[in-house]
Request: fold
Amino acid sequence: MKQSLKILLALALLVPVAGQAQAQKKNPRIDIEEALRGYFKPVSTPSSTPDADGFIRRWMMLEPISKPNPSNRVFTDSYTREQLSKEYFSGQLTVLPKDGDKVKVTMEYQPPVNLNSNRPAAQPRQEQPRFVKATLTWHALDSDHFFVKLFRFATGLDKDRYGVIFWTVTVINCEEDIENVRLSVGSNKAARWWVNGEEVLLLAGDRHMGVDSAVSDRITLKKGKNILRGVTMNGPGMSEFCARFIDDLGRPVTNFTVTCN
Reply:
């Protein structure tokens, strides 16, 4: 009897400790949801649809790759194409990632910025950049707005937010071929876009996001899965984009679903 009481007493003392350990164990999903509140929500449904104006809000988003650019004036056509043609991680133009997948990158180091300043302080230009290795994570997110606020994505996750490259990808699912549509993109700073592996847009220059500010030639969204992939490069300042498909009259195309893979 005494032995049983001793066992029960020992178990009772262990319960609070186990409870505390469980409470201290963080749930990454809850952390991300809180960190990105007001701009993004973690994906919680199998599929999504474009909003009433056709804007695509569901994206797989890779944490930013550091690429220090002291000025947005460097984003000429040739510079944009050169920098966004480099291989930053394996399979960047073919991979269809899942939420939580990780990639290894080698990227230029840049010191942390002072977020109390209105703009990032100019860093001394080094003749030879210093490169560091990093492991970055893909996140499946639904944007709370028609635009995708890349700056807030980076800031919320406490990653580099100036002088960075953002890779994004999503899947457009069609029940039948949708012909003669155009990809329409607004982008704050330089970008490249692909549909099913074919480049359809290059956006260069020190630009600000405007709806339908760049429109592709006519393309066909085929029956089944269509992979929409974009990469945005920013220097100092904000970074965001919006994307949709429109017809020849500029009307939004909405008869498809959107998934992450």
